[in-house]
From TrEMBL:
<dbReference type="InterPro" id="IPR011008">
    <property type="entry name" value="Dimeric_a/b-barrel"/>
</dbReference>
<dbReference type="GO" id="GO:0003677">
    <property type="term" value="F:DNA binding"/>
</dbReference>
<feature type="domain" description="Transcription regulator AsnC/Lrp ligand binding">
    <location>
        <begin position="6"/>
        <end position="77"/>
    </location>
</feature>
<dbReference type="Pfam" id="PF01037">
    <property type="entry name" value="AsnC_trans_reg"/>
</dbReference>
<keyword id="KW-0238">DNA-binding</keyword>
<dbReference type="InterPro" id="IPR019887">
    <property type="entry name" value="Tscrpt_reg_AsnC/Lrp_C"/>
</dbReference>
<protein>
    <submittedName>
        <fullName>DNA-binding transcriptional regulator AsnC</fullName>
    </submittedName>
</protein>
Length: 80
């Protein structure tokens, strides 16, 4: 399992619509938050170990209506 975090910059007024669509349609979604700062949303995704992260982001996330830009963080190890 691969864990990635993706920040979304949305077109004005579209952040809640984008968040709703991501949660409803992408089974890889763990959670999504509205945020302040340079990006509007922060989402956590769990991908299969052999999944192509770049393809997931460019084909499933960046193509969502209302998304202007994304920033992806790939994680290595979770500490608890």
């Amino acid at each position: 399992m691969q864990t990635i975090f993706v920040q979304f910059k949305c077109h004005p007024g579209q952040a809640y619509d984008v968040a709703d669509l991501v949660v409803r349609t992408l089974e890889e979604t763990s959670e999504i938050y509205s945020t302040s700062g340079d990006y509007d949303l922060l989402a956590k995704f769990y991908l299969a170990k052999d999944a192509d992260i770049g393809h997931f982001v460019t084909s499933k996330l960046q193509t969502i209506e209302g998304v202007k830009d994304t920033f992806t963080l790939v994680t290595f190890k979770a500490f608890s």
